[in-house]
């Protein structure tokens, strides 16, 4: 939240947090506090001169342009996705061209955007994602349904933050499918016993 307030998140992560705040507006006052603190810090900082203005401009113009999201289609009255997600992906939940990743586990990748791998996921009720850890951070926003792992329950509007210190096996709750939006800094690494992995892959 502090990085969101400071404006230093990669674009997909910024969109994820913005969508979370749409779904759980109770957290907006906390973001406002961070924004106030960030503003105070900026006002107190001493200006720093550029070592080389020309080199700085050259680096800006040489930077690879960020992939822009697809133009969003009009939203229906009963839209599932928050506006931030819809505008970013250009799709609503019923328009996602899902691809089967494992039995009961579907995914739709938006590719790499602003240095992050970005995707939607769909889990059948009761479906487990194989145990894994991370080589960088993983942010997952639950858009519908819920899942549980060793840290607890993540329901609609919740953000799961995982990194190399977390080894988990998310399991969708049995009442309904779990749909989410995920932003990865790096690929995950499978863990767990061979027997468990075989069972998870079979589904």
Q: What does this molecule look like?
A:
The protein has 203 residues and is an alpha+beta fold. It has two domains: 2-62, no CATH class; 83-202, Jelly Rolls (Sandwich). 30% of the residues lie in helices and 27% in strands. The protein has a six-stranded antiparallel β-sheet, covered by helices on one side. A hairpin with a 2-residue loop joins β2 and β3. α2 runs antiparallel to α5 (83-89). Mean pLDDT is 85; it is low at 68-72.
Show the helix and strand layout.
Elements: H1 2-6, H2 11-23, H3 28-44, H4 53-62, H5 83-89, E1 99-102, E2 105-113, E3 116-123, E4 132-134, E5 138-144, E6 146-149, E7 152-155, E8 159-162, E9 171-172, E10 178-184, E11 188-190, H6 194-202
Antiparallel strand pairs: 1-2, 2-3, 3-10, 4-11, 5-8, 5-10, 6-7, 6-9
Helix pairs in contact: 2-5
Q: Work out the count of structural domains.
A: 2
Morphology: globular
Terminal-residue CA separation = 35 Å
- In CATH terms, the superfamily of the largest domain is Jelly Rolls
What's the CATH C level of the largest domain? Mainly Beta
Number-wise, the strands total 11
Oligomer: single chain
Major sheet: order of its strands?
1-2-3-10-5-8
Strand coverage percent = 25-35%
H/I helix tally: 6
- Name given to the CATH architecture of the largest domain: Sandwich
Helical content, roughly?
Answer: 25-40%
Mean pLDDT: 85
Structural class: alpha+beta
Query: Regions with pLDDT < 50 over 5+ consecutive residues?
Result: 68-72
Note the main sheet: 6 strands, antiparallel
